[in-house]
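EI: anyone free to look at a 540-residue chain?
SC: sure, send it
EI:
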Amino acid sequence: MPANTIDIATIVGYFVVILFIGLRSSRGQQRDAATYFTSRGSLPWWAMGMAYVSTGLNSEQLIGMNGMGYFVGLPLVNSYLNAILVFTALIFCFFPVYLRNNIITMPQYLEERFDKRSANVFSVLLLISYVFLSLAVVLYGGAKLFEVIYEVPLWQSVLVLGLISGVFTIFGGMSSMVNASVFQFVLMFLGGGILFYLGYDQLPNGWQDIMDHAPGGFHLMQPADTPVMPWHAVLLSLFNLQLFYSCINQALVQRGFGGKTEWDVRMAIVFALVFALFRPFLEVFPGLMARALAFTGHTAFQLTEAEIDNVYPLLIANLIPAGLQGLIIVGILSTVMSTIAAFLNSISTLFTYDVYKKWINPAAGDRKLVSVGMWCTFVLMAFSILYAPVIGKLGGIFIYFQSLATYLAVPVATCFLAGMFWKRATPAAALVVLVAGIPLGAMIQLVAIPALFSPGFIAAHGLGNFYVTGGITQVFCVAIMVAVSLFTPPRQTAEIKRLMWTPAMISLPTSDPQRPWWQSVGLWWGIMAIVYGVLYWMWW
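SC: here you go
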């Protein structure tokens, strides 16, 4: 069998397996809405951990981050090492509040903590962002692989990826995604590991070449005038984009709502902490490696910034021999399919519970809710297939996604932090921040900063950086939250007490089974905290 035929057979075989998993998982799932959307009470820690990792690792990361790795370098690894901070918040603060209040969607939390107005605004913002940002970006990234490697027209690849992801999400619900994620988790790390090894083997001096040719030097923290991720951008993004993505993002957080126990949910995130350390070797270091190859005689990797999204596909096309490319592409497709399915399921969950059941048909039963969710998934899939090719005309994947996502993350993260940790935060304040936050961010970045500062000052202090302007916007959002809260009535403490975080929530609930010391969440979290600290010390 010719090598190219083997590659095609491998890819087709993958699609067949994924469809089989989705259809098999659908048995008995479509009668109960909670089971269909969240697999309530049925998932072990390792399955949720794999699903969380594979959902977060997608084509926006593989293609976008590797492209930026080529031009920006090691500072991008901060996005993964920061996991020890935001995952800690998820383990000990956010998940305890969500799980003990039976939260299914993120807008539901805002409704119970503040009021319906905030929840409704957030629902609309989330639905728009998932369709135009997350879902379309992942579809475009997956299709970009086939365009660069096999010269398949972008729209054809988008169509195939969208249809197959939609089918197994529609019929399988959450169970199909978790079952598929275990399979996809293995594939993505296997494929990524092979690619990294083959590229590394081409470098004359190995790791030293990667360090020597890293843009800006091999350091995590870079000066304030560094493009994309200077030191203050790393710090400021922690409180909005990083926090939003890990602790408030419906697509990721929903992975934990099906856990058997709260211990399972927490251990799933500790598991994700372990594999977050390996993700840079799939998502950033291959881009650095391509840059090192360009400087050591491999002219195929000499790229311009206009070709930023071609870095990762070119690594596959030039390093992986025919016959093995299919396996590598399947590994990448596993990230694409997993994430597309997660977003489709999460968006349909949001629409079904926060739009249809709340505004259209409050009396809808389980079968009706599942039916609405399935039709919602179909419509979303169709729209995203049509919109995804447009992204190629809007700049690189990374900048498109990260910059627009920051606009949303700032007001949302501000509301969740205030709602969870400040009992005086009022419904009126949350509503004002959610409504005003996005236009305020745009005004600060596009109008206020250019009007107040010279181009030289802006460049020297990174004020044109979207992470930095996001942090500045958040300061104003916090000020608005405090000011409006002090002049408007809060809800009664008795009504919101259960939705506020307390130090007692650090401990597992008494309803959880007692476990031996070596299964302690705190023990394994502590070990990972030490590992992360050492890496920061080494690469600072």
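EI: Residues 154-201 form the longest helix (48 residues).
SC: 👍
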